[in-house]
Predict the 3D structure of the following.
Amino acid sequence: MTQELIDLRISIIEGRYADALTIVDELEGMSKKAILHNIESFLVRLLVHLIKNQIELRLTNSWVASISDSILQIKKLNIKDNKTSYYIERDEWQPLLVKAFEAAIRPASVEVEGGRLTPYQLKGRLDKNHLIEIAIDLLLLTYEYEEEDLPDGIDTHLIQLPGGEGWLEGK
């Protein structure tokens, strides 16, 4: 990116504005790609913990913290600088979550039930569609809640998961 900024400066100084705009477009593309990559990483993290919940039928403080943080970070990353539009719109999560689900299987297999399931075995025990549906419901909260109110909205959804009531009661 440093070279692109140098080239941009030179293009502006030399009055080559078309070249400068091309470089700006390239920089915007690089920025968007980096943001989407970060969002995808948080989607994988989110799904790992939802997978653990679906298999182990419980919810821990650690999992709740990770799920909540993933959703909060996605909210921050997804909103564009203009604060009125998003990189990923409400109806665009499904294909990203399908891809993230595949990426989440291996790390989840290490954590679920003490790592005793292979990725193949774990995948066979999961209800992928239901898992993605839960993830979408959580992601849609990022469009509905302000950042300071989002954790409470997330908790409201999480207590509906298996083990959620027990987590709420500290059991």
